[in-house]
């Protein structure tokens, strides 16, 4: 599968197969690919926490209503490390780097046959308490095998004309 095909195949998965856990080796392979994501000055000022099983089900109750009753086999919790950020002037690039890493993970997971959904709507303090984390949690990524009723949806995106300005 080439990158164009992968980009067209990857979508936010909101329904996962019940009783089919994700093999840790597959998640590890996806994280190995994610490690290769570019980051400002290659500092990688983020941390991934992988949760599954009963802890994942408890975490699912701490996210938005769309998922509160869902069976989600695993989550990748992405934390912003509490350290002096790499800056250019006053700009902190950690959140940009986390977004890039999340994109790498979701594409690696799609290549491995997994469904994912990047989540920003969650009870951060609840997740921190559940996992005994101190660092800021910026994103969760739901991970699992898409349920059979998840079909490949057509992508509705703005046109290039709306998104791009060419300057010569």
Automatic annotation (TrEMBL):
Keywords: Oxidoreductase. Residues 9-77, 87-145 form the Nitroreductase domain. Pfam families: Nitroreductase (PF00881). InterPro entries: Nitroreductase, Nitroreductase-like. It comes from the Bacteria. GO terms for molecular function: oxidoreductase activity. The keyword Lipoprotein does not apply. Belongs to the nitroreductase family. This is Nitroreductase family protein. It comes from Caproicibacterium amylolyticum.
